[in-house]
């Protein structure tokens, strides 16, 4: 039997606005996914989206559907 988890990854709001224009940091994303993999989770689906922040800003986010064998 399997279990599923939704994992949302996005950058800090202020970092997105002032430092890199709302783009996801690939190093931090890799680290976050490796942490999930260490717990046995595998990515089954992924969706990229732009999330509105405040009135004029948007930031990139990723929604992952993770799967693993039920423990």
Which secondary structure elements does this structure contain, and how are they paired or packed?
Layout: E1 2-10, H1 13-18, H2 26-38, E2 42-53, E3 57-69
Antiparallel strand pairs: 1-3, 2-3
C-alpha geometry:
elongated
Gyration radius, in Å: 14 Å
Count of helical stretches? 2
Question: What is the topology, as strand order, of the major beta sheet?
Answer: 1-3-2
CATH class, please?
A: Alpha Beta
Structural class: alpha+beta
* Biggest beta sheet summary: 3 strands, antiparallel
Along the chain, the helix and strand elements come as EHHEE
Low-pLDDT runs of 5+ residues are none
CATH architecture: 2-Layer Sandwich
Fraction in helix = 25-40%
End-to-end Cα distance, whole Å, is: 9 Å
In round numbers, the mean pLDDT is 83
User: What is the name of the CATH topology?
Assistant: Dna Ligase, domain 1
Description:
With 71 residues, the chain is an alpha+beta fold. It has a single domain, classed as Dna Ligase, domain 1, CATH 3.30.1490. Helices cover 27% and strands 48% of the residues. The chain is built from 2 helices and 3 strands; from the N terminus they run βααββ. Strand 2 and strand 3 form a beta hairpin.
Short structural description:
The protein is an alpha+beta fold and 71 residues long. It has a single domain, classed as 2-Layer Sandwich (Dna Ligase, domain 1), CATH 3.30.1490.
Identify the notable features of this structure and list them briefly.
71 residues; alpha+beta; Dna Ligase, domain 1; three-stranded antiparallel β-sheet
């Amino acid at each position: 039997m399997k279990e599923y988890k939704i994992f949302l990854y996005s950058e800090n709001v202020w970092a997105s606005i002032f430092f890199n224009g709302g783009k996801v940091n690939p190093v931090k994303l890799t680290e976050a996914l490796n942490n999930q993999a260490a717990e046995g989770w595998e990515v089954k689906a992924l969706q990229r989206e732009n999330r509105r922040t405040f009135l004029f800003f948007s930031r990139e986010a990723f929604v992952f559907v993770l799967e693993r064998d039920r423990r």
